[in-house]
Design a protein that fits this description.
Length: about 325
Amino acid sequence: MQNTKNERRNVGVLLFQHFSNHCLANAVEPLRAANGILGHAAYRWEYLTLDGRPVTSSSGLPVSPGGALAGAAGDVLFVMPSYGFRTLGSPACLRGLRAASRRFSRLVGMDAGSWLLAQAGLLEGRRATIHWQELEDFAEAFPEVRAVRARVVTEGERWSCAGAMTAFDLVLRMIALDHGEALRLEVAALLMHGDTAAPPAMARARSQLVAAAVSVMCEALEEPRPIAAIAAGLGVSQRLLESRFREELSLSPRQVYRRIRLAAARRYVEQTALSVAEIALRCGYRDPSAMTRAFRAEFGASPRAFRAGARFPD
């Protein structure tokens, strides 16, 4: 079930000595981007360690956690060991993970995190993946786990991904589950994930028809085209186009077009000193007040307030 606007996901990020900073960024940055696009803090995350003490990444980045695992609870726990993970499964660590499984709704093994979850007995009878360099050893060490070569595995409330880059894919999937496919697409586009040569809003569209329609929308911002005209230009009926959009994005073409135009307006607000009236014209609004109303409804603040930094409450 998707979150409503006022719901917040509390995410714990469990770090270990020599964790991958690349993996951490790929896990957290999509959440930050989702908050910015939604205009409110849909995700809150806290860095944790087993004992509450600071840790240092494999590249030398120190992190001071917000607390120890034993004092944390929430919706999702990212378990994020990397180098040296085979030495981390101490009795205290495994007890801590088992206890955390009762306080967090979902446990996610990132990079080599599945190894620790399996050691703690939290993946028995489930599918899971791990960094592919470790997959064969993982399968031999834990025959009770169905090890699979996949980028992301979602098995009930036990999720896993194969490495630093795939953490991004996993978090995008979580965002789509919580808030819909359209937000996943927007976050992927904002962070240039996927085919960066394509217009941003069509990133990772599943069919050529939807991708082509979104491309037309991106190219026709100042003079928005009727949906019927877009469909005719692509050689399909408006009914078919609308059906494909709802199937892939859970939104109508009109709703997607509106979000594309407002996303462009947001970029102008953030990155330029253009007036609201000029931004409205560039995004297909003849009436600046109409764009302001739509902008506030989408992002929770007027363009001027958004530009001043009042994007969403803590």
